[in-house]
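Deliverable D4.2, example record:
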Amino acid sequence: MNKLKASQLSQDVFGEYGQVIQKGGAKSFPINAGNCTRYHDLVTIDVTGEECRPIVSIVSGKPYDLPVEVPMVERHPFGSQAFIPTGNNRFLVVVCRDVDGVPVEPKAFITSPGQGVNIARNVWHGILTPLDGQSDFVVVDWAGKGVNLEEHFFETPYQVS
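Output generated by the structure prediction step:
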Protein backbone atom coordinates (compact mmCIF):
# COMPACT_ATOMS: atom_id res chain seq x y z
CA MET A 1 0.00 0.00 0.00
CA ASN A 2 1.24 3.50 -0.82
CA LYS A 3 1.53 5.82 2.21
CA LEU A 4 0.34 9.42 2.09
CA LYS A 5 0.55 11.88 5.01
CA ALA A 6 -2.14 14.54 5.22
CA SER A 7 -1.10 18.13 5.85
CA GLN A 8 -3.06 21.15 7.08
CA LEU A 9 -5.24 22.73 4.39
CA SER A 10 -4.41 26.29 3.29
CA GLN A 11 -4.91 28.26 0.07
CA ASP A 12 -1.14 28.42 -0.48
CA VAL A 13 -0.78 24.63 -0.74
CA PHE A 14 -4.21 23.88 -2.27
CA GLY A 15 -4.34 26.63 -4.92
CA GLU A 16 -3.52 24.54 -7.99
CA TYR A 17 -6.48 22.24 -7.21
CA GLY A 18 -9.15 24.81 -6.38
CA GLN A 19 -10.04 27.22 -3.61
CA VAL A 20 -10.30 27.03 0.18
CA ILE A 21 -13.62 28.33 1.48
CA GLN A 22 -13.31 30.20 4.76
CA LYS A 23 -14.19 33.51 6.37
CA GLY A 24 -10.61 34.44 7.26
CA GLY A 25 -9.10 36.82 4.71
CA ALA A 26 -12.38 37.18 2.77
CA LYS A 27 -13.89 40.47 1.71
CA SER A 28 -16.68 41.17 4.18
CA PHE A 29 -19.23 43.85 4.96
CA PRO A 30 -22.25 44.32 7.23
CA ILE A 31 -25.76 43.59 5.94
CA ASN A 32 -29.27 43.41 7.42
CA ALA A 33 -28.98 46.64 9.39
CA GLY A 34 -25.59 45.57 10.74
CA ASN A 35 -26.91 42.36 12.30
CA CYS A 36 -25.07 40.07 9.88
CA THR A 37 -21.71 40.01 8.13
CA ARG A 38 -21.52 38.86 4.53
CA TYR A 39 -18.27 37.12 3.53
CA HIS A 40 -18.50 37.91 -0.15
CA ASP A 41 -17.59 36.08 -3.35
CA LEU A 42 -15.52 33.31 -1.75
CA VAL A 43 -15.07 31.03 -4.80
CA THR A 44 -15.61 30.83 -8.53
CA ILE A 45 -18.24 28.25 -9.48
CA ASP A 46 -17.13 26.95 -12.89
CA VAL A 47 -19.61 25.03 -15.07
CA THR A 48 -19.59 24.26 -18.76
CA GLY A 49 -21.59 22.05 -21.11
CA GLU A 50 -24.95 21.74 -22.77
CA GLU A 51 -27.94 23.04 -20.81
CA CYS A 52 -25.87 23.25 -17.64
CA ARG A 53 -26.31 25.19 -14.43
CA PRO A 54 -24.86 25.27 -10.93
CA ILE A 55 -26.91 23.42 -8.30
CA VAL A 56 -26.94 23.39 -4.48
CA SER A 57 -27.41 20.14 -2.52
CA ILE A 58 -26.88 18.84 1.01
CA VAL A 59 -24.84 15.68 1.56
CA SER A 60 -24.75 13.89 4.92
CA GLY A 61 -21.72 11.68 5.49
CA LYS A 62 -20.65 9.08 8.02
CA PRO A 63 -17.23 9.64 9.61
CA TYR A 64 -14.05 7.80 8.69
CA ASP A 65 -11.18 6.95 11.04
CA LEU A 66 -7.57 7.63 10.14
CA PRO A 67 -5.74 5.99 8.52
CA VAL A 68 -8.07 6.01 5.49
CA GLU A 69 -7.60 3.80 2.44
CA VAL A 70 -7.94 5.64 -0.88
CA PRO A 71 -8.42 3.09 -3.68
CA MET A 72 -9.69 5.58 -6.27
CA VAL A 73 -10.16 9.20 -7.26
CA GLU A 74 -12.71 10.91 -9.47
CA ARG A 75 -13.07 14.12 -11.45
CA HIS A 76 -15.84 16.17 -12.97
CA PRO A 77 -15.08 17.56 -16.44
CA PHE A 78 -18.08 19.91 -16.61
CA GLY A 79 -17.99 21.69 -13.27
CA SER A 80 -16.21 22.63 -10.10
CA GLN A 81 -17.45 21.03 -6.89
CA ALA A 82 -17.66 22.95 -3.60
CA PHE A 83 -18.00 21.22 -0.20
CA ILE A 84 -19.03 23.53 2.64
CA PRO A 85 -19.46 21.90 6.07
CA THR A 86 -22.46 23.03 8.10
CA GLY A 87 -20.70 22.14 11.37
CA ASN A 88 -17.19 22.23 12.81
CA ASN A 89 -16.07 18.70 11.99
CA ARG A 90 -12.89 18.38 9.97
CA PHE A 91 -12.72 16.41 6.74
CA LEU A 92 -10.04 14.87 4.56
CA VAL A 93 -9.38 16.18 1.04
CA VAL A 94 -7.29 14.13 -1.40
CA VAL A 95 -6.35 15.67 -4.76
CA CYS A 96 -4.03 14.72 -7.64
CA ARG A 97 -2.37 16.46 -10.54
CA ASP A 98 -3.31 15.20 -14.01
CA VAL A 99 -0.76 13.95 -16.53
CA ASP A 100 -2.25 12.89 -19.87
CA GLY A 101 -5.57 11.93 -18.28
CA VAL A 102 -4.01 10.00 -15.38
CA PRO A 103 -4.01 11.17 -11.73
CA VAL A 104 -0.48 11.47 -10.31
CA GLU A 105 1.21 12.77 -7.15
CA PRO A 106 -1.72 12.58 -4.73
CA LYS A 107 -1.76 15.06 -1.88
CA ALA A 108 -3.89 14.89 1.24
CA PHE A 109 -5.15 17.75 3.40
CA ILE A 110 -7.13 17.99 6.60
CA THR A 111 -9.43 20.97 6.93
CA SER A 112 -9.67 23.14 10.00
CA PRO A 113 -13.11 23.55 11.56
CA GLY A 114 -15.14 25.90 9.37
CA GLN A 115 -13.06 25.42 6.20
CA GLY A 116 -14.56 24.13 2.97
CA VAL A 117 -13.11 23.55 -0.48
CA ASN A 118 -14.06 24.30 -4.06
CA ILE A 119 -12.36 21.64 -6.18
CA ALA A 120 -11.68 23.03 -9.64
CA ARG A 121 -13.28 21.57 -12.73
CA ASN A 122 -11.46 18.46 -14.01
CA VAL A 123 -9.25 18.01 -10.90
CA TRP A 124 -8.86 14.44 -9.64
CA HIS A 125 -10.04 14.10 -6.02
CA GLY A 126 -11.01 11.53 -3.42
CA ILE A 127 -14.52 10.96 -2.14
CA LEU A 128 -16.05 13.08 0.62
CA THR A 129 -14.39 11.92 3.85
CA PRO A 130 -15.71 13.42 7.12
CA LEU A 131 -13.41 12.73 10.10
CA ASP A 132 -14.84 13.76 13.44
CA GLY A 133 -18.47 12.63 13.33
CA GLN A 134 -21.57 12.52 11.17
CA SER A 135 -21.28 15.63 8.99
CA ASP A 136 -23.53 17.59 6.67
CA PHE A 137 -22.17 19.56 3.73
CA VAL A 138 -23.68 22.08 1.38
CA VAL A 139 -22.48 20.99 -2.06
CA VAL A 140 -22.41 23.37 -5.02
CA ASP A 141 -21.77 21.62 -8.32
CA TRP A 142 -22.98 20.96 -11.87
CA ALA A 143 -26.18 19.69 -13.46
CA GLY A 144 -26.68 19.33 -17.20
CA LYS A 145 -26.54 17.00 -20.18
CA GLY A 146 -23.73 14.49 -20.30
CA VAL A 147 -21.73 12.39 -17.86
CA ASN A 148 -19.86 14.55 -15.37
CA LEU A 149 -17.95 11.78 -13.61
CA GLU A 150 -14.71 9.99 -14.43
CA GLU A 151 -13.15 7.49 -12.01
CA HIS A 152 -9.62 6.14 -11.73
CA PHE A 153 -8.73 3.15 -9.54
CA PHE A 154 -5.10 3.04 -8.38
CA GLU A 155 -3.11 -0.10 -9.08
CA THR A 156 -1.98 0.10 -5.45
CA PRO A 157 -4.31 1.98 -3.06
CA TYR A 158 -3.01 4.81 -0.88
CA GLN A 159 -3.29 4.89 2.90
CA VAL A 160 -3.66 8.40 4.34
CA SER A 161 -2.65 9.14 7.92
